[in-house]
Every structure is written in structure tokens, then in C-alpha cells.
Specification:
The structure holds two protein chains of two kinds. Chain A is built from 18 helices and four strands. Chain A has one domain. Classes of the chains: A mainly alpha, B mainly alpha.
Chain lengths: 570, 48
């Protein structure tokens, strides 16, 4: 790996170390219930919304009401988005005169954006500007805010004593959008525009090239969608080429800024957690576990891609770092981005629930591709999505203290709350739903003729493509290995079902755990209490994530990318 | 017709999610049971 790539990685870590802790402190104030910075300005925006929607800003909800509110909001918003996609041909702001998406594709797309997945089967030249802005971009905000709300509810469950309530879903949702995501998106969009990302309401321009041909240059509100795409870990690009497209990601600075945005909020949530539970060490432990998993994946992917592709070496391609090229495996990559940075972007986008891409994951080396696949399989806790990364890691923390409790023969405790059978049953539900739908649907699809015909490769790479699609959907990532035609009735329907299960069937047990923990009293720490604010616990947490989740998928990873690497058939 | 099927499928998925909330509620049990269970553990550990 070149020194420039190491420098970029170091600069990214410094930028995150500078920005994530203060953002976490700010978030703790936003959700803490007391005075928060910007109350005067944001209150001016929030109060009319509360009044219009009939929301009591001081209201509190039990965990079941919180969950029903989440489901009711999601049901209404997904039906509205479905209608938008089916009726966009009759709606304004459609300069390209795009027609309705087909029913199965509309179903897939609406569930995809509802669940923060942003799996895009629709391709370029299909979505009107109104649908982009008032449909897809709107869901980029509210789906991220829903994830944050569930994480905050879980923290309240851990902090509160003998409490029946977890806060209000509606207030948490609105505060996340108004006080966190909108300001970040506004400032970020200006940075993006300064780097040359398109931002207009034009239709396509026809231009004459120097070669004497004509070319259609698309326009649209790209920059404003680009920031929330990354900062909310959504990942759905304005263009189908996503961040490989020069209008979305024109240069190295915009690329670096996008990786920074992908990681900023997820890495700030552990600091918010530490502050809200009144023990910053707990936040550092969670952040440490997330960081270890992320840095391991990033350095592996960067190295695998920097080392080049043996198949390209065999045909005489020069993959060395020289004064005129970045070197490495450049298949499926942009020269302005390079192989190592692609590895950094790929590991960051799959360690979070983003799913944006700046290179084709299908063209990664088998081991580089396996990093992205395993990253998603780990449940995207390194550092995960907005809120979903934190609550995912906290679920593993509960599992870790349970395992540690079994080892020392004491009732497991976490932050002074006893972890009992009911919480562990919900933890097991959380952990089992995703492998169930991934392995179930991928297993069925790989033996059916129609889905297999959608694959562009056979052998281990074909298996990887199939498994990656369901893994990405069920974990709400949204990146694709490509090499698969997902726009069929089978894939549109089954992938959407995976996305739904991977989102709401995990959020509900999390809220249940929050409700159960919130009822309990704090138990004073004794000599037998397993300390969770230490580096030992960080190691245990990483071990539990890798062993419990990683081993679930090891056989299929072995049959896919590992076999592909060993036989050299790619 | 296809629209009806996909809207029905969406409603069915949300119906399953609603059932999951009910199932989780049953797993957790009523508040009195939770408090009693905590008390038993505390007693047992104090005795130990």
C-alpha cells in the first residue's frame, strides 16, 4: 500500500477523532431532555411541526407505543412512496417525462428507502426530480432518524430506573431530522457543490463532444441528496453508478469528504452513549470495539486491492505504483479515486449500513470482496448506521456480559441492570432473524432456475453475488456486488422482504429490551460484577461479534470468495 | 391487480411486525413479574 494511502487513512482517523466526540456530546444534549444548543433556532422550526401534528413535546411513550408509532409512521410513509413511484408520470417536476415504475419495482424501491437500505434496482433514467427530492431524499432523512430514535430509546432503557416509558418516538424523530441531519446536510451540500457536484433542477443537456459526437449530460439536485446519502448511511445514489459517477463524486477531496460523512455520525453515537449513561468509559469501550473492526477491515481491503490482481499481472498489466498511476487492482475503479482508496471506501460503506460505492464491488479481488461481504454479515456494527450501529453493538454487549456471567457464575449485569431470561430471549431473536432470511432466501434462490439465470457469473463468484445480494438487503446496506440482474419479480419481492425483516424485526426486540430494562432498578456493583468499562471488555465484545455472527456465515464465505481465491477462477 | 397484491404484501409485513411486538410483550411479561424476578435474584445473591 502506498504512503499516500496510509496518509489518507491517518488523516481520516484524525478528522473523525476531532469531530466525533463533540458531535456525540451535542447529540447527548439533543436527546437528553434538557436545554440543548440552538434551542431558540430549532424550536422555531419544531414547534409548528408539533402543533400541526398534534405532538406533545413533553410526552412519553411505553415501549409498545413507541414501537407502534414507529410502525404506523413507516406504514404511512411507505404507502405514500409507493403511490409516488406509481404516479410520478402524472406529477410535476418531471422534466424528463419519466413514467411509472412497475409494481414489483415500486414495492422493492419503497421498502428499500423506508428501511434505510437504498438497494436500487431501478437504474438511471427512471426517477423524476420530484420523486428524488420528496420521496427518496425525504426517506433518507426519516429512515436515518428512525434508527437514531431506536438507539436513543435503548439508552434511556439502560439509564432509567423503574420507568415505564422511553421518551416519544415522534419527538425523537423530529429532533433528529431538524437538529442533526438537516444542518449537516445543508453545510455538507455546500461543500459538495464547491467540489463540483451537480445541483440544479435542469433536465438533460445535449452537448457536442470534441470527437464530433453528441452526448446527453444529466442534471438534477445531486449535491443535496449526496450528503444525506452518506451522512444518514443511506447509500442510494442519484445516478446508478453512485459515487463512481463524476457528478456525484468528482475528485479526491469529495471522495475523502464522503468517507468522512459515512463514518461521522456512527462514530459519534458511542460518545453520546457514554455521556447519556454518565460513564464516558462505556462509550470509549463501544467506540473501541467499532474502531477495531473497522480499521481491520479497512487495512485488509486497502491492502488486497493495492496488491493488484493476479489475472491482470498474467496479461502483462503494470499494477505497480508509479509517478503516473496509483497502482493496484484497477478493474472496476476510477483513476481519480484509485485502488487503495476504493478499499477504504468499500470497507467503510459496508461496515456502516451505507452501501454507497465508488468502485464496483464485483471487481474487487476475491479477498477484497470477502472483506465487504463479511463486514455486512457482522451486522454492520463497525461502526454501523445512524443509531442502528450503536444498538447493534449494545445487543452484542448484552450477549457478552451474559457469556461472561455464565463464566463467573453470577447474574449478568450491564450498566447496573440485571440481564435476565427475557432480555436474552429478545437478544437471540435479534441475532437469528437476519441469518435466517439471508441463508433461507439465498439457499432457495441458488437452486431455482429463474434467479440463477439473473447471475452473470457461475461458480464461487456466482454464489458470492447471490449471497451478497441477500446479505446486503437483510442488513439494510444496499450495496450490490453487481453481476446480478436484480430487477425481476423474484428479486424485487424477496429482497424487499429481507430488507423489511432486517429492519423492523430487529428494531422491535431492541425496543422490547429497552422497555424491559427501563422497568428495573439499578443494582449496585459488587466484587462479582463484570466490569464493562475496560479494554478487556472491548476485546470480549469484538470476540463475541466475530465468533457468534461471523461463524454463522463462515461456510458460505468459504464456498464463495475463499474458494474463488484459492482456485484463482475470477 | 399487481398494485393490490403488493399493497397487501406490505400490509402483511407490517401485520407480522405488529405480531412481533405482541410476542415480545409476552416474552417480557407484566411489570410485576419483572420486579419479582429481580428481587429473587438479589435475594439469592445476597444469601450466597
Amino acid at each position: 500500500m502506498s504512503s499516500a494511502a496510509w496518509a489518507e487513512l491517518a488523516l481520516l482517523i484524525v478528522a473523525l477523532a476531532v469531530c466525533a466526540p463533540p458531535l456525540g456530546a451535542y447529540l447527548a444534549k439533543v436527546y437528553g431532555g434538557g436545554a440543548a444548543p440552538g434551542d431558540r433556532v430549532f424550536g422555531w422550526i419544531e414547534k409548528p411541526i408539533y402543533r400541526l401534528c398534534g405532538i406533545d413535546p413533553e410526552g412519553e411513550q411505553r415501549w409498545t407505543t413507541y414501537a407502534y408509532s414507529l410502525l404506523a409512521f413507516s406504514l404511512v410513509s411507505v404507502l405514500v412512496l409507493y403511490a409516488q413511484l406509481r404516479l410520478q408520470g402524472h406529477l410535476p417536476l418531471n422534466p424528463d417525462h419519466f413514467g411509472a415504475l412497475k409494481p414489483a419495482l415500486s414495492f422493492n424501491t419503497s421498502i428499500s428507502f423506508l428501511t434505510n437500505t437504498n438497494w436500487q434496482n431501478y437504474g438511471d433514467g427512471t426517477i423524476s426530480q420530484l420523486t428524488q427530492m420528496a420521496g427518496l431524499a425525504l426517506h433518507n432523512f426519516v429512515s436515518a432518524a428512525a434508527g437514531a430514535s431506536v438507539a436513543v430509546a435503548l439508552i434511556r432503557g439502560l439509564v432509567r430506573r423503574k420507568s415505564r416509558t422511553l421518551g416519544s418516538f415522534w419527538v425523537d424523530l423530529i429532533r433528529t431530522c431538524v437538529r442533526v441531519l438537516l444542518p449537516l446536510a445543508f453545510v455538507g451540500a455546500i461543500v459538495m457543490v464547491s467540489q463540483g457536484v451537480a445541483q440544479n433542477l435542469h433536465g438533460p443537456h445535449t452537448v457536442h463532444t470534441v470527437a464530433g459526437l453528441t452526448q446527453s449530460i444529466p442534471g438534477g439536485p445531486v449535491a443535496s441528496q449526496e450528503v444525506i446519502k452518506e451522512a444518514g448511511q443511506n447509500g442510494g445514489g442519484f445516478f446508478n453508478a453512485n459515487s463512481s459517477h463524476p457528478f456525484e463524486n468528482p475528485n479526491a477531496i469529495s471522495n475523502f469528504f464522503q468517507i468522512f460523512l459515512i463514518l461521522l455520525i456512527p462514530f459519534s453515537f458511542p460518545f453520546m452513549f457514554g455521556k447519556m449513561v454518565g460513564d464516558r468509559k462505556q462509550g470509549w469501550v463501544v467506540c473501541g470495539a467499532m474502531f477495531l473492526l473497522w480499521i481491520l477491515a479497512a487495512t485488509l481491503a486497502m491492502n488486497f486491492e493495492s496488491r493488484g490482481n493476479v489475472k491482470l499481472t498474467a496479461v502483462g498489466a503494470n499494477q505497480a505504483v508509479t509517478a503516473t498511476q496509483g497502482g493496484g487492482n484497477m478493474e472496476g475503479k476510477e483513476t481519480r479515486i484509485g485502488a487503495a482508496t476504493c478499499g477504504l471506501f468499500a470497507s467503510s460503506t459496508t461496515g456502516t449500513s451505507t452501501g454507497a460505492i465508488d468502485c464496483t464491488h464485483d471487481s474487487l479481488t476475491p479477498l477484497g470482496g470477502s472483506v465487504t461481504l463479511v463486514n455486512i454479515m457482522l451486522g454492520e456494527v463497525s461502526p454501523g448506521g445512524t443509531g442502528s450501529g450503536l444498538y447493534g453493538m449494545l445487543i452484542f454487549a448484552l450477549l457478552s456480559v451474559f457469556i461472561a456471567g455464565l463464566m463467573v457464575g453470577r447474574t449478568p449485569e450491564y450498566l447496573g441492570k440485571k440481564i435476565q431470561a427475557q432480555e436474552m430471549k429478545l437478544v437471540v431473536l435479534y441475532i437469528l432473524f437476519v441469518p435466517l432470511v439471508i441463508l433461507g432466501f439465498a439457499g432457495v434462490s441458488i437452486v431455482m432456475r429463474t434467479p440463477v439465470n439473473s447471475l452473470l457469473n457461475n461458480g464461487p463468484h456466482g454464489l458470492s453475488e447471490m449471497v451478497y445480494a441477500y446479505t446486503s438487503a437483510a442488513n439494510n446496506n444496499g450495496s450490490a456486488f453487481a453481476g446480478i440482474n436484480g430487477n425481476t419479480n423474484w428479486f424485487n419481492t424477496t429482497l424487499a422482504m429481507c430488507m423489511f425483516v432486517g429492519r423492523f424485526f430487529l428494531m422491535i426486540p431492541v425496543l422490547g429490551i429497552a422497555g424491559s430494562l427501563g422497568r428495573k432498578q439499578l443494582t449496585p456493583a459488587t466484587a462479582g460484577t463484570f466490569p464493562t468499562g475496560t479494554s478487556l471488555f472491548t476485546g470480549l465484545l469484538v470476540g463475541v461479534v466475530v465468533i457468534v455472527v461471523g461463524l454463522t456465515f463462515f461456510p458460505v464465505v468459504a464456498l464463495g470468495p475463499i474458494v474463488e481465491h484459492l482456485v484463482g477462477k475470477f | 391487480m399487481a398494485d393490490v397484491i403488493f399493497v397487501a404484501l406490505t400490509l402483511a409485513l407490517f401485520g407480522l411486525a405488529w405480531l412481533l411486538v405482541r410476542a415480545c410483550e409476552r416474552i417480557i411479561g407484566p411489570e410485576e413479574v419483572t420486579e419479582l424476578a429481580v428481587g429473587r435474584h438479589e435475594d439469592a445473591e445476597t444469601a450466597a
